[in-house]
């Protein structure tokens, strides 16, 4: 009987620890190719759900956020993108180049050097972010009116760690 009590106690402790951890970290799969080459489809990531409670988003952060878009089954679609512009920044996309506050961005992480679309001096609203996928030719992001600038409050988490594929395990920059 004592052995059964010990098992129940150990299982309860494990469940409590798991619930606490899941308040801070959320495991997720990448389901699309819009973040290639940085992230591949089926990469397994951990998100920090508390990242922006204690700090501010930075350009280059990879985030998952809520959208008004729907999946084929009608569920809310979460997107994963890179933060490009912060509140108050002026974003311009012209002739395949991205400019933030008039300065051309050097984006070594993109799949191709060319960024499609044209945006003329869009000021990112307060409490919002301008985001784009690294696979610029195949990304529904802030360039698309169906997404636009996203509210910081809609950020579900910041991608911080890749667990799979195993040969790419490590922190995400």
CATH topology heading = Umud Fragment, subunit A
- CATH homolog superfamily: Umud Fragment, subunit A
Q: What would you say the CATH architecture is?
A: Ribbon
Structural class: mainly beta
Task: Kindly state the number of beta strands.
Answer: 12
Order of helices and strands: HEEEEEEEEEEEE
CATH class: Mainly Beta
Mean pLDDT, rounded to whole units? 93
| Helix content class | 10-25%
Largest β-sheet summary: 8 strands, antiparallel
Helix run count? 1
Summarize the structure.
The longest helix is centred in the N-terminal third of the chain and has 23 residues. The chain is elongated. Helix content is 13%, strand content 37%.
Describe the structure.
The chain has one domain (2-171): Umud Fragment, subunit A, CATH 2.10.109.10. The protein contains 1 helix and 12 strands, in the order H-E-E-E-E-E-E-E-E-E-E-E-E. It has one helix at residues 2-24, and strands spanning 25-29, 44-48, 62-70, 76-85, 90-94, 97-100, 103-104, 119-123, 128-132, 150-151, 155-164, 170-171. Strands 1, 2, 3, 4, 9, 10, 11 and 12 form an 8-stranded antiparallel beta sheet that branches. A hairpin with a 2-residue loop joins strand 6 (97-100) and strand 7.
Features:
single chain; 173 residues; mainly beta; Umud Fragment, subunit A; eight-stranded antiparallel β-sheet; four-stranded antiparallel β-sheet; 1 helix; 12 strands; 13% helix; elongated
SSE layout:
Elements: H1 2-24, E1 25-29, E2 44-48, E3 62-70, E4 76-85, E5 90-94, E6 97-100, E7 103-104, E8 119-123, E9 128-132, E10 150-151, E11 155-164, E12 170-171
Antiparallel strand pairs: 1-2, 2-11, 3-4, 3-11, 4-9, 5-6, 5-8, 6-7, 9-10, 11-12
